[in-house]
Amino acid sequence: MIPSTQETSVARPRRTQATRRQESDKRMLRAAARLFAEGGVSGTSLADVGVAAGYSRGLPVERFGNKLGLITALLDAMDAWFQAHIARLLDGTTGMRAVKVRMEAHLASVVRDATSTAALYSIYTESLFVMPELQQHVAAVTGRWCDGLAANLREARRAGEIGKKVDCDGEARFLLAAMRGLVIQYLLDRSDADFARSKKILLAHLERLQ
Fold it and tell me: How far apart (Å, rounded) are the C-alpha atoms in residues 180 and 42?
């Protein structure tokens, strides 16, 4: 084939098969998140994901095997992004300041990308009854978020920023549960004002740990 004038004037590097596969996988995961947010996990088929991503109905099966494989891949991608995002925001910050950074980042996610957040919470919900085989993977992902809070709380306790008798693991679980509740409420009512007010109240709880 003779390249067009445009192709010869701006030479584009040939994408490798691995690069094309990576890009198509990302497109399918983004499509899955959008469909899960709109119709739930149960209301979405692998074929739906393939078509929504602009590919064949069978490509998601080829790449992910089944719906469980697709969902776990989406969870891992979301977790990897969040962990990298948190690492950039923390940049060496420790103790109570780090706890606040983590909480701000967690709560900001629903405002920044309500679609992905709704998809994530759809997975949470359906793992309870419809797909219990997801529970272990969900627990591992959210457990890492809880562990990060607990580690920073322990730093704060060692530094004397909070009381020596504070149960850091228990507080971390409480904070994560409270943030989940605020996120769900926001997804239900989309009230920025109420979300901001509740967020302020939750962050004020940290002052009572001293």
Answer: 21
Q: Is residue 192 part of a domain?
A: yes
Residues 27-50: tens digit of each pLDDT: 999 999 999 999 999 999 999 999
What CATH number does residue 91 fall under? 1.10.357.10
**What range defines the domain where residue 102 resides?**
72-209
**Total structural domains in the chain?**
1
Residue closest to 183 by CA, chosen among 90, 121, 99: 121
Structural domain includes residue 152: yes
Which residue from 209, 202, 127, 197 is spatially nearest to 161, judged by alpha carbons? 209
Taking a C-beta distance cutoff of 8 angstroms, is the pair 163, 210 a contact? yes
- Number of other residues whose CB lies within 10 A of the CB of residue 34: 18
State pTM to two decimals. 0.87
Give the pLDDT of residue 18: 86
Establish if 33 belongs to a structural domain.
no
